[in-house]
Every structure is written in C-alpha cells, then in structure tokens.
C-alpha cells in the first residue's frame, strides 16, 4: 500500500556549496534528481496528485524564516552564520565556522535555511495529509548542533522538521538515521524529549567521526530513558550484517513506540566505495533498507513518512542510484535493480563529470541477511554490537533483549 508522494526540490538547493574541493559536492543532488527524472519517477511541478496514485510530484522548496531555524538553533549562532555569509573569509571557531569541515561561503545562511525549509515543507505536507510520503534529498544535515556547525552541517534540517511536527501537535516522532556517521545533532536536540525516539545505525565511533558519541550506552535523558538508540557497527560490516542489525533493532522499537510520523535520514556513505568511511554495503543493500523503512512506515504510523538524504561521497557511482531507489520506493514504484541507467543521464554525467556513470541501478548483489531469531553468536562482532544495543534500550520499552 502507498499513497501520493512528493519530492520537495528546486535547483537552488544546490547553492549549499562549500567549494570545489569539499567532499559534500552539490552535484550529487543534481545528478540524483536528473536520474530520477530520466527514469520517469518524478512528475512535473504543479501536476495534480491523485490519492493512491504512483510517482512523485515535484514541489518547490521554501526557505525557512529565522524564527523557524531558531526553534532548534541558538540565536547567537544564527547571527554568526549570517555574519559569515556576508564576510565569507571570516572564521568564527567558537561556532564551528571556518574549519576544513565547515568552511564559510557567501550566502551560507540562505543556502542552509533553504534546506531547512525543504525538510519542514516535506514534514508539513505529510502532517497535513497533503502527501503520504515526502522526500528532501538535499536534506539530512544531522550533525549541526544547536550552537555550532559540525560535520559539513550548518543547520540541522531533520531536527527543525521534527520540532515543527511537535509544535504542530504531532504526539510522537520516530527519527531513523541510516547514515554511516552517528546522528549526533538530532540526538542532542531531543535527548530528553519523551516524544521523540531517535535510532541511529552507524559505523562505530571508535573508528569514525564524530568519535565521541554514538555508543549503545547513550540511551536518553532522565525524561526519555531508552529513547536514544545507537547501533555502533564494526568497520567492514556489509549488507548481511547491517540488515541483520536493522531488523533486530528497528522494527521492535518502532512497534513499541508507536510513532505518529516516521522521519528517516538516508545517508548512503555506508557504501563499500565511499571514500570517507569503512562499511561495505552495496546499492542493493541500501535499496533493501529503504524498502524496509517504507514498509515500517505503513505498519506503525499509517504510512506517514518523511525522508531526507544525508552523507554520501561517491558522487556519481552511489548517491544518484541509491537516492533514486529511495524516490522510486517513496513514489510507489520500486525499480527493478537490473534497470539500466538512461542514456540521457549517462550523457549528463559525461558532460558534468568527464567520466562514465554506472550502467545499471544494481551492484549485482543479493541483499540477504539472517534474522536475529536464529540466535546470538558471541564470536561475531556485529552480533555483539546488536546485543549491546538491545540490552541497553529494549527493557525501557518492555521488550526482552534476549528474544
């Protein structure tokens, strides 16, 4: 079952640009939307939506006003971002601005606020019932803290979207972070809020940024014990281990929490060729994850699903294909993994990137896993990570971590 869906996007979202040598290159967003359009997944802007229809309607992305950004971010930090936007060579290290991860650039505030506006628009359209699913592939900037930039993220669009939902009267929101890096900024904002469940599956911070957070022992503040959930997977984890962890942790907790809306972040830097991390998933494994999230949205919250992009630094080979699979799933038309990439998109890649693009929407992998019900293997690093998370959080939800 699915319903009408939206892609919130306009080309100006690619103005979020740290410069030609920065890993977070906006071409990845442009190539994703171009591939989705070439595959016929996205309808024209302004096209009528039909309840129960398939495909994604393209809607424009508004910019977030200052008061919306300030619902999560400290006013002093917003002022610092604005100053740096006008004086792009200014550093303000007290606010994390001007580092190699977060260099300043002209118009930075407007570009970041635009991404926030797109994610809030996606959340608004789902909450009001204008769409059942809504996606902002330019979003997912989950590392930004209330008072500082971090990890390529200036403003935390998922956190602002969640705050908007809560302020609009949504009783409970589940945030599911699939990025290879811990969703530390969103966890920080809602660590003591009993209305928000945050679940992050990521490479262990023992081997990857942000280094200091994302351990199973981080389970929520005094008012929200068990509502911060972290699955810290060992470097080298592939499709089978990652999917085993996902299905051992995520469905039981979502069913227990009963969210009203599910917001997911689909960073695809868990892929085996991503240059900034050490997990070994395939596009096929990431597609399987998106299918599972879609299915859970329908099982636990009536299909109300907001999805964002996130990390992903294999700009041509991975990001456009993984996020096009996400868009196809959100639009009710999952792609056959063996679908060839269209000739028009291949030409665009050649012109823009001066290299060939992948020929198919698959890595040629069958994304299979062994269910947790088969039993715990104490010699397996992935199983030890899963068990640590279940033991830390399941009892708070009335769940037996050993079953």
Name a few traits of the molecule.
acetoin catabolism, Arginase, Chain A, His_deacetylse_dom, 403 residues, 9-stranded parallel beta sheet, alpha/beta, Acetoin utilization protein AcuC, 9 strands
Task: Walk me through this protein's architecture.
With 403 residues, the protein is of the alpha/beta class. The chain has a single domain, classed as Arginase, Chain A, CATH 3.40.800. 34% of the residues lie in helices and 10% in strands. It is built from eleven helices and nine strands. Strands 2-3-1-4-9-8-5-6-7 form a nine-stranded parallel β-sheet, sandwiched between helices. Helix 8 packs parallel to helix 9. It is globular and about 55 Å long. About 2% of the residues have low confidence.
Structure, briefly:
It comes from Actinopolymorpha pittospori. This protein has 403 residues and is of the alpha/beta class.
The CATH architecture assignment turns out to be 3-Layer(aba) Sandwich
- Spatial gap, N to C terminus: 29 Å
**Major beta sheet, specifics?**
9 strands, parallel
Which word captures the global form?
globular
The low-pLDDT segments are 46-52
Mean pLDDT: 96
Helix content: 25-40%
Q: Proportion of β residues?
A: 5-15%
The fourth-level CATH homologous superfamily is Histone deacetylase domain
Could you please say which CATH topology applies here? Answer: Arginase, Chain A
User: What structural class should be given to the helix and strand makeup?
Assistant: alpha/beta
**What's the CATH C level?**
Alpha Beta
Q: Provide the number of structural domains.
A: 1
Radius of gyration: 20 Å
Keywords: Acetoin catabolism
Pathway: Ketone degradation; acetoin degradation
Domain Histone deacetylase: 22-328
Family: Belongs to the histone deacetylase family.
